[in-house]
Amino acid sequence: MDCATKKDFSGKSVRSIKKCGGFRMNDLEMYREQLALCDDKIIDALVERNAIIEKIMAYKETYGMPILQPAQEAKQERRLNEKLKDNKYQDEIHDVFKRILRNSKRIQARKLFSYNIVLIGFMGAGKSTISDYLSTMFDMKLVEMDQEIVEREEMSIPDIFATYGEEYFRNLETNLLKELQEGENCIISCGGGVAMREQNVVEMKKNGRVVLLTASPETIYERVKDSNDRPILNGNKNVPFITDMMEKRREKYEAAADVVIQTDNKSILEISEELISKLTELDEENV
Length: 287
Ligand SMILES: Nc1ncnc2c1ncn2[C@@H]1O[C@H](COP(=O)(O)OP(=O)(O)OP(=O)(O)O)[C@@H](O)[C@H]1O
Ligand SMILES: O=C(O)C1=C[C@@H](O)[C@@H](O)[C@H](O)C1
Ligand SMILES: [Mg+2]
Known about the structure:
Blueprint (H helix, E strand, L loop, with lengths): L4 E3 L5 E3 L11 H36 L7 H15 L5 H23 L3 E6 L5 H12 L2 E4 H9 L3 H8 L1 H15 L5 E4 L8 H10 E7 L2 H8 L14 H18 L2 E4 L5 H19 L1
Parallel strand pairs: 3-5, 3-6, 4-5, 6-7
Antiparallel strand pairs: 1-2
The structure holds adenosine-5'-triphosphate (ATP), (3R,4S,5R)-3,4,5-trihydroxycyclohex-1-ENE-1-carboxylic acid and magnesium ion.
Adenosine-5'-triphosphate (ATP) binds next to α4 and α11.
């Protein structure tokens, strides 16, 4: 390819128009304009897509349909995989769609919850499990209080208890909870004992709705029996001990709760749906 140069009328060297790889001098400008038009189309499509997301939410609300529909999400993913399977840009396009999906989830989360969701309840009630699921489904930030404390202290909870005592651990919980009130649209999965301090409950309610998960002592026993991560239960993993401790804590849990969800024999999806509908109802009552 010969990109010959010649002088223009002012004497400046310019490339010959016809001989440069089949491109013309002004092609670059033209491509840039085409790119800008493409970007405009993408913006218009995204605005339209987001408006459709809002319509779907309104429709589900009107007809009392479940908000979370993981099967539909899986169907959409299959459709996309099929459509992109022979596309040479499939990795890049999949990456873009991942972000689009995450942002759709955020739009839903912001519309549904303008506050933090704070999960409380006895050990093994499912706080971590449900928080994790909700945070994935709505792309919401998740703070697992126990885990956060373990990371900051660089020690396991049983070691914190053994080295510094329970009071020290409880103070860490209170301080973390205070710190978390600065954010919003976050899921906070509390340690099992967090709601026992009145000061903690005041903090939770500043910027959050408190969801109490419950389960029978038998269910709790089944869920915790194979783990040694809960120092209070170590050596006490039996139904009578759990029953007794639960009864002692019950009043405080219930007093802290804005909504209560009983979790025995329910799937994670069922519990999460119940949580969303109870929180939504609560907001409607408060309007
Ligand atoms: N709805 C459920 N159905 C069946 N198993 C469940 C359910 N919810 C939680 N589990 C199981 O019970 C165990 C304890 O759950 P999880 O860790 O979520 O409880 P937790 O309330 O966070 O406990 P802790 O207060 O000790 O942190 C886990 O193994 C989890 O998989
Ligand atoms: O119920 C409790 O008092 C506790 C529950 C766990 O989540 C941990 O926060 C810790 O083991 C104490
Ligand atoms: Mg937990």
